Amino acid sequence: MKLNEAVSKRLKELLDEKNMTQYQLYVKSGVPKSTIGNIMHCSYDSVKLRVIHELCQGLGISIPDFFNSPFFLEDSLDP
């Protein structure tokens, strides 16, 4: 899987865990709705760490918590 797909899947997983919508994440994080939608639909080849940090703040988690997922294991990611 590509890294942008892993970020998208992890974000969806976290939204489900927190029972949050993309709109609620936008309100809490300040990340534009369009950016969140583009991340969810893998429209970007990569996502800036600054954006992931802001999303994490909105989700109430740390950056290490975001990346603490099997989606980011080296064996799961395409080179």
Q: Could you walk me through the main structural features you see in this protein, from its secondary elements to its overall organization?
A:
By secondary structure, this protein is an all-alpha fold. About 60% of the residues lie in helices and about 0% in strands. It contains 5 helices and no strands. Helix 2 crosses helix 4. It is globular, with a radius of gyration of 12 Å. The mean pLDDT is about 95.
In a few lines, what is going on in this structure?
It holds the Pfam family HTH_26. The protein has helices at residues 3-17, 22-29, 33-40, 49-59, 63-67. The protein has 79 residues and is mainly α.
Topology diagram in text:
Layout: H1 3-17, H2 22-29, H3 33-40, H4 49-59, H5 63-67
Helix pairs in contact: 2-4
- Hey, roughly how much beta strand do the residues contain? under 5%
The major β-sheet equals:
none
Oligomer: single chain
Helical percentage: 55-70%
User: Which whole number gives the mean pLDDT?
Assistant: 96
| Secondary structure category | mainly alpha
Shape: globular
Runs in which pLDDT lies below 50 for 5 or more consecutive residues are none
How would you spell out the order of helices and strands? HHHHH
Number of helices: 5
Distance between the termini: 9 Å
In angstroms, what is the radius of gyration? 12 Å
Total count of strands: 0
